[in-house]
Amino acid sequence: MLHFVHIPWQEPAAWLGLPERVRVAIHDGLLANDVVGLHTERWRRAFLDCCEAFLDARVDAGAVEHEGRVTRVNARPISLDPAEFRALATSGPVLEAERRLVAERPELLVLRVDRTDPSKNIVRGFEAYGLLLERHPELHGRVRFLALLDPSRQDIPEYVEHAAAIERAASAVNERFGRNGWEPVVLRVEDDFAASVAAYKQYDVLLVNAVFDGLNLVAKEAPLVNERDGVLVLSANAGAHEELGAWVVTIDPFDVEGQAAALGEALAMPVEERRRRLEGIRAQVVEHDLAAWLAAQLADLDAATSTIGA
Predict the structure, then answer these.
(1) In Å, how far from its chain's centre is CA 166?
(2) At a CB cut-off of 8 Å and minimum separation 6, what does 65 contact?
(3) CA quadruple 165, 166, 170, 173: dihedral positive or negative?
């Protein structure tokens, strides 16, 4: 039996806010599987450290021995089907959404595509963009931040308040800097995947500044179909950073000034460097696609069950 964990696994200290019985039950329960998969080596290492700390389990070479069972723990970052996603990017609904976007786009387009989830760090992203405009008046009228957000868990009061905070942050930037018909931020909160894929094709800079993410597929989807040598500005705490870090502008998700500087760097980057980075991301995504991820999972399970039967 295999269980794949999509969330970012935290180090033992982060679990101390939970009662001991809860910490033990979560880790003990996962070790009932033959294989546990996580997106990154960072999350895998944290899981192993937790098993050692909370269960006094024996950890050796990526496996956990606990109460007579051995569970393999592997890092297998999920991906997508490149051919299927590229076909989607040329579909009728996407092309129509792209036509509308191109008709109204500015010279430079900064994009984010996310859920309205607190972990996505959207408010800090707007604050960083506002700081960028403060420090670079030459960008006024030339750049726009397009935020395409999918409503998330709006039956939970805290999420409703967070969605309101997102709207306030976007409005603050527009009220401070907007002039002569220029709207620095365009915020759309709706479920419209065709519009998101169209924007993937048109961005100059893509901001992914999540506080923590198990992986973040946007960081893989968008570069695959982008047509403007777009630059990915990526949180060091997004799982995708472990794969893509060599080709991105890395940011600390808690550092607003650093994010502002990263946006400026990405917007000013020479086209040759932009293209080199984009091609690097694409090659990684194509080589390590969804089929390869699934095959690796099945091979892990076969290896584990073969050992059990031996």
Answers:
(1) 18
(2) 57, 58, 59
(3) positive
CA distance readout (Å), 227 to 15, 36, 59, 231: 43, 37, 46, 11
Write the CATH number for 162: 3.40.50.2000
User: 81-95 burial by CB neighbour count: b if 16+ within 10 A, else e?
Assistant: ebeebeebbeeeebe
pTM: 0.94
Domain range enclosing 70:
2-78+290-309
223, 230 contact by CB (below 8 A): yes
pLDDT in tens, 27-51: 999 999 999 999 999 999 999 999 9
Q: Distance of CA 276 to CAs 19, 35, 240, 285, Å? A: 48, 37, 18, 15
- Residues 161, 272 share a domain: yes
Q: How far apart are CA 85 and CA 232, in angstroms?
A: 18
DSSP-derived letter for residue 14 is G
